[in-house]
Write a structure and sequence with these properties.
Layout: H1 2-27, H2 42-45, E1 54-60, H3 64-67, E2 79-83, E3 95-99, E4 102-104, E5 110-113, E6 117-120, H4 126-137, E7 145-150, E8 154-159, E9 165-168, H5 176-182, E10 190-201, E11 204-210, E12 230-235, H6 237-244, H7 249-272
Parallel strand pairs: 8-12
Antiparallel strand pairs: 1-4, 1-7, 2-3, 5-6, 8-9, 10-11, 10-12
Length: about 270
């Protein structure tokens, strides 16, 4: 009898170790990273400016009086604060200050910039548009400094993450990994192989799936986020099973385990006699 109990115990131990290894593997990200060639093109690495974007554009130079015409109607008191960490959940943390005149991109992709006039942003990244502004201003000012920031670059993260909500990203550039990091990572119940990204592009709603365990996610067109993207983390089977279980199941299993252990001890003492 004693040998049978010990045998059952060792089998249980081996099964537990196997389950533990499987769980750990399920939680690891980008498991094949060393075997993946990064093929992301420059086109996918940066987000382009979209209609409705709020561009904060501030022109500076050694002599600030010279660039005043390019910063019309701007006062240093005009400051936009954005939250980089926890969206609306913890509004006092991670505040980033963005200051400067704000321009709303119209439906045709244009803004009306002082002195220069109408400028088109269509299919341009923030860096490309900044270089274009600098090139035009150098016709009037020597060595101007151009700062272009996106004030309303927001992504929404829902589902099995530790902090759901809307997140504003001040520099206008973020990856799925960055965004999930802001949301406090996935919970243990998050399905790491099935991350849904919903995107509105040129008036059309498109979507894609990302597998966090596969390093090929780096080459996905949805790896680099765009303005207004929504990330939805599905629940895994563990969450579904847990949701169907009686809330006292854990207590019952603990009681059974203690009972089995007590019986084994009694039998062991009995055999010694």
């Amino acid at each position: 009898m004693k040998s049978k109990i010990l045998g059952i115990f060792f089998v249980f131990l081996l099964v537990s170790c196997k389950v533990k290894d499987n769980v750990q593997n399920d939680l690891n990200y980008m498991q094949n990273i060393e075997n993946i060639a990064i093929e992301s093109s420059a086109k996918n690495s940066s987000s382009t400016i979209q209609a409705g974007d709020q561009l904060v554009i501030l022109i500076t130079a050694k002599d600030m009086d010279v660039v005043k015409p390019f910063n019309q109607n701007y006062s240093s008191s005009e400051i936009i604060q954005t939250n980089n960490f926890a969206g609306g959940n913890t509004p006092n943390q991670g505040m980033t200050t963005i200051s400067g005149p704000t321009y709303i991109v119209d439906s045709d992709g244009n803004i009306d910039f002082p002195i220069i006039g109408k400028m088109n942003t269509k299919d341009k990244s923030l860096v490309e548009f900044k270089d274009e502004i600098r090139e035009k201003i150098t016709q009037y000012v020597i060595n101007p400094t151009v700062n272009v920031r996106l004030a309303n670059f927001k992504v929404t993260i829902l589902g099995e993450v530790n902090r759901q909500g809307d997140y504003t990203i001040a520099n206008g550039q973020a990856t799925v990994l960055n965004a999930l990091g802001l949301a406090g990572d996935l919970t243990i119940y998050g399905k790491r192989t099935d991350i849904l990204v919903i995107r509105t592009e040129n008036g059309n709603v498109i979507h894609g799936k990302i597998n966090l365990q596969d390093a090929n996610l780096i080459n996905s067109p949805f790896f680099n986020l765009k303005q207004g993207d929504a990330i939805i983390v599905q629940s895994n089977k563990v969450r579904e099973i847990t949701a169907r279980q009686n809330p006292n199941t854990g207590l019952y299993l603990t009681a059974i385990s203690i009972g089995v252990t007590a019986i084994a001890v009694v039998i062991s003492l009995f055999n010694k006699k």
